[in-house]
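pinning this so it doesn't scroll away 📌
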Amino acid sequence: MPFETDAQTLQDLSLTGINGQPAILDLFKPVTVGGAVKLKEFFNHPLTDIDTIRERLAAIQYFGNHDFHISLHKEECDFISFYIDQEGRATKVSKISAYADQVKNRIKPSNQLYVVTCGVRLLFKLIKKVSSAFERHQHEIPKPLKDLRQQTDDLFKSLPHDLMNGQDPGITATERLDHLFRKIKKAQVIRFLDLLYVADVLNSTAVTAIEFKFCYPEFIVADYPELVLKGFTHPFIKNPVPNDIEFTYGKNLCFITGANMAGKSTVLKSIGICTYLAHMGFPVPAESMQTTVFNGLFTTINLADDIALGHSHFYR
């Protein structure tokens, strides 16, 4: 069952940004463009399966608690994705064709040769780098990292053994690897990159959780909806005053009153942000959070506040 929400809620909570306003999404900073795309997917598709939510939370917490790091370079990963997406025919594995191409490109270098040569070398290096990271890290790992390790192992084992001397592949070896990456193992390479971009998001989210002192929500199974937040704040407020709130069976309605610019709409938005992020499997701006799984979130706050500047709509 998908998590239901609407454009009004995304705007009310400043989740993905609108009209140049600060966005909750911008708190998380993946290294790669693929990671940024994956992060947007996470924001667009919150979860309702408690096991999947717990798996993602455990993976993010793992990155925060363990010294496991895969050094990713934005330009290199972006180039690899561009190379894999090329529509051109993957090169044939033949010494004769390789040397023929070499002579032809010496006479008139082609952009395609540059893309293939650089793409092959960068992807070859990346697979070996990720494989080495897992070899150095022998701890039990959460499911998203297990999936990445399995995909990495499968690709690593398919690499020709005679190319493991640490040098960049030559012309003939580049053709062999291009044939492997873009024809024989293309689906596996795409899956490898997708899992790597997920890991990029999870790692960057763990960094944000540490920087902003977010907590990891606890999801419970109960007969009735429950939501208990302790010390929750809005992440855009400097020196915020924490608040607590509790919704349980027989206690599921709350009236918030106060003077103009007292922070009523900010409290409502903060509760919504915590609830939304939790259902993404992300840490939340609170000291603690305990909740059941909800199947959606809808808000109609629709006030022209500017939280970043501390302006209420009454102020305007």
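📌 and the second one:
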Amino acid sequence: MSYIAVENCTLLLSAPAIELTPPTILPPSVKVKADGKGVYRGAVTFTYGVGAISHPAWTASVTNIAPAIFTINGSATKVKADSQAVLLEGDESAQVLVQGQAMVGTTPTPSPQAISLKILLAGQLKVSGE
């Protein structure tokens, strides 16, 4: 059993990527709440704007040069909200190629990096599911 993810949950990009600016997130359920916060359910999209992610391989620009979009699907098999599986603490997106630039000699060169996004902490400690 894992805690159900709610608004203001803590996210973690796969190492060594670092979040500089929080993503824009599709809104959680307004009908179903856990500890007074809207529950994330179904396929939730997390969008990081340009300059929101840092990666040590990107020596030319230091940050992502294009928006990065991650989708985390609800993994609960026994708990639903709004008829959709809820997201749980530990759920993770597939890897996404995030665009940045590395220096090759003196030339900035595209350097896409495979990064995933994980729900590190659910944002509440009262309601769990599986």
